[in-house]
Write a structure and sequence with these properties.
Blueprint lengths: L1 E12 L32 E2 L2 E12 L2 E12 L5 E2 L7 H31 L6 H27 L5 H16 L3 H5 L2
Antiparallel strand pairs: 1-3, 2-5, 3-4
Length: about 180
């Protein structure tokens, strides 16, 4: 048995719109998750900055490569913000947080699917390229989903579509095999 050195890869996912939360478990966003200040020149009412990171260790048995992954999601509170001075009341804050939760949900689903895809793939000696390809495929899917979410909700302005997305997120999160994949 030959052990291949541990390789760390850090991928930062920056959604120009709200998103993520801390660590391995699903997180319900709160106003206290937004500690950052809006950068000059940006007009977004809120922004969530998240990172999905993973590392892996490869073990080679003959011509077989076993790759063990650790996929994590982190909310970067110091880079996430809500312009509280523009939030008129608690009802508006609730709507902002609900919309931001949608971005977090997309990132959380990305993290869970990425862990599942990484775990189920059979790797070859070309495992580094395979991992990059798998990440790109899953990430592209969720970047498109995030864009579609913003387009359909009109940046939280379309309440009817926001409610449809909230229901979809609820079903999608409920059907995520959290224990099997999110904790790996």
């Amino acid at each position: 048995m030959k052990k291949i050195t541990t390789r760390w890869i850090v991928l930062f996912l920056l959604f120009s719109f709200p998103i993520f939360a801390n660590a391995q478990y699903y997180h319900r966003l709160a106003a206290t998750d937004f500690e950052g200040s809006p950068p000059r020149g940006t007009n977004f009412l809120a922004y969530t900055h998240c990172s999905v990171t993973y590392n892996y260790q490869v073990t080679q048995y003959n011509n077989r490569y076993d790759v063990d992954f650790d996929v994590q999601i982190d909310l970067n509170k110091d880079k996430s913000y809500i312009r509280l001075n523009e939030v008129k009341d608690l009802d508006m804050l609730h709507h902002v947080l609900m919309h931001e939760q949608g971005h977090y949900n997309i990132a959380y689903l990305l993290k869970c699917e990425l862990a599942k895809v990484f775990k189920s793939h059979r790797y070859t000696a070309n495992y580094q390229n395979e991992i990059t390809t798998l990440f790109t495929q899953v990430n592209d899917k969720y970047q498109h989903l995030n864009d579609e979410y913003e387009r359909q909700t009109e940046h939280m302005q379309n309440d009817a579509n926001q409610e449809k997305w909230n229901a979809w997120f609820s079903r999608a999160i409920d059907n995520t095999p959290v224990r099997a994949y999110a904790e790996r």
